[in-house]
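From the methods appendix. Each design record in this collection lists the tokenized structure first, followed by the designed amino acid sequence. Records were kept in a plain field format so they could be parsed without special tools. The example shown here is representative of the layout used throughout.

RECORD:
FOLD TOKENS (137 positions):
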């Protein structure tokens, strides 16, 4: 019989997978995640983006190269350190993210509406806890 932590991990993984199925972008989940990080933290170095994504800088470089080629992000020289580059979200990258979020949110809102008020309140109350878990070291 699965433990509470195993049941939680399975439920979160299944929900995450289901939300990813709503994607219509040609970008991979990793590419979309990096795009979302750039949108959230603003112009940043590849190293800073890699730290947020918890991957090594060489891994992020490949992803960023693809996003630059697609026109979803741009590179600019760092104003204080000529050895560094800043990555910034483009208008097209912002549009792609907005479209993906809209589809995901529409699916989630439709399915949340089928839950009872008590169930929706329970999920609202659990959201900060799940966020804290996801962002923990």
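DESIGN:
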């Amino acid at each position: 019989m699965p433990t509470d932590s195993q049941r939680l991990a399975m439920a979160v993984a299944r929900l995450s997978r289901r939300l990813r199925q709503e994607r219509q972008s040609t970008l991979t989940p990793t590419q979309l995640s990096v795009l979302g990080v750039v949108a959230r933290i603003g112009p940043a170095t590849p190293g800073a983006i890699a730290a947020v994504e918890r991957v090594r800088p060489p891994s992020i470089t490949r992803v960023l190269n693809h996003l630059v080629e697609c026109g979803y992000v741009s590179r600019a020289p760092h104003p204080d350190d000529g050895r560094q580059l800043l990555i910034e979200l483009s208008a097209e990258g912002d549009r792609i993210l907005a479209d993906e979020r809209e589809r995901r949110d529409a699916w989630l809102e439709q399915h949340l509406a089928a839950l009872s008020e008590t169930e929706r309140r329970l999920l609202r109350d659990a959201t900060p806890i799940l966020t804290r878990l996801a962002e923990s070291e």
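APPENDIX NOTE: The helical segments are 4-20, 29-41, 46-53, 57-70, 91-113, 117-135.
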